[in-house]
Amino acid sequence: MSSRLASISRRALSRRIPLGARSVQVAADSTKLSSEPGEPSQPFTVTLDNNTFKGYRTEAPGLEVSVTKENLMEWYKQMTLMRKMEQAAGAMYQAKLIRGFCHLAVGQEAISVGFHSAMAKDDKLITSYRCHPFAVLRGGTITGVLAELLGRQAGMSNGKGGSMHIFTPTFFGGNGIVGAQVPLGAGIAFADKYMNKETATFALYGDGAANQGQVFEAFNMASRSIYNSLVSTHLFFLLG
Residue 225's pLDDT is what? Predict the structure, then answer.
């Protein structure tokens, strides 16, 4: 019966899609329920697609994830809110109300929401461009971000930082210099370890920064045996 319904669905879909149109297969539609969800706060298990994670000289994370309905609804609300904020910022930029740079994170909401949901309250994060959602989730406000983009005093950096230089006690901004955030992240982790804080620091960078000298220097400092006990247990480098 299920195969017959699938066949009917494919035929119906083929009639709606114009000839020559291309479709995109995503991993999300292959996620399977391993246990049935119950109450909103009751955990249940989903199994992710086999290609969800890839590791190089390391073990990839497991594919079974425990979540609740409350988790999923909260994450969806946060992603939707971040999308609306970025769309509003984009509209203001097109209306020439925002001067200077305006690096939007439209389509990348799941990254910031996912990171934030996995981090402890006092964990630190530093990244490069497209950082508006991180600024809100890590202790800022939508009003503070939009006011900052507009150059207003109510902005999170008093209107002087713009699209990238927005900070909170646990978020150390976007950074305009390619790869500059990686050694800064190493320094943040070192400071927390030096003060015996049980926190983690996440330094995010893209493939454009992967060949920068300061990135390798930060790796070397974090991996040296004399420095290892001070930094590497608290620092995570993440290539996006």
Answer: 38
Both tokens of residue 195? 């003060």
> Which has the closest alpha carbon to 70: 43, 46, 35, 45?
43
57's CB contacts (< 8 A; 6+ apart) are: none
3-state secondary structure of 95: coil
- 90: number of Cβ within 10 Å: 14
Give pTM, 2 decimals: 0.80
Q: What are phi and psi of 63, to 5 degrees?
A: -95, -15
Here the tokens at position 51 are 């290609």
Contacts of 16 (CB under 8 A, 6+ apart): none
Burial of 212 (0-12, 13-18, 19+ CB in 10 A): middle
Lowest mean pLDDT among 86-95, 186-195, 217-226: 217-226
> For residues 101-139, b (16+ Cβ closer than 10 Å) or e, as one string?
ebbbbeebbebbbebbeebeeebbbbbbbbbbbbbbbbe
Cα-Cα end-to-end distance for the chain: 42
Nearest alpha carbon to residue 108 among 78, 138, 88: 78
Mean pLDDT of 182-195: 88
Residue 164 pLDDT more than 80? yes
